[in-house]
Design a protein that fits this description.
199 residues; alpha+beta; 4 strands; 37% helix
Length: 199
Amino acid sequence: MRRIEPICETLTKDYGTPMSPSCYHAFGKCGKSAREVEDERLSTKIAAVYAANYNCYGVRKIWHALLNEGETVARCTAERLMRRNGLRGVVRGKMKRTTIADSNADFTEGLVKREFNAPEPDKLRAADFTYVSTRTGRCYVAFITDVYAGRIVGCNVSARMDRDMVIAAFKMAVHMRKPAGCSGIANLIHHNDKGSQYT
């Protein structure tokens, strides 16, 4: 059996963590903590609920099922244990990719450098769009946000994922937030991704 005294000395001298051989041996004999025991018990219950519901339930439904069974458990605990055990809820519909770059388009390098901070309003705006599933199909929502205020200053909803949709949102942002008495939007940085609708 390897002696642990040199390891304890190194931890104490070089890393500032006082550790004696008796402390090391006591730690090895202490067994599982109360949290580890509770996590194992809850993980078994979560796995049973997940399997009983065709491996479909997500965090919210698993959490409510545990509460209905009389368990006193926080939602974040159920989420943590599901993530640890690789359990995920089923997502309805197929995920749609919206950012599709045009390989032939010219675009400038980003001026923002991933620093999304603005000293005052109308200095930096960020634009993007996403899709929303409805009963009659999918629609697309383009929006432009003033980074300083965190406020949407331009938006547009369309049935098509095209450049006209993002242009309409841009025009709305220009007209809605144009500073009083100013004919333009000088010194404004407009940031968007490299999707073909923007480039």
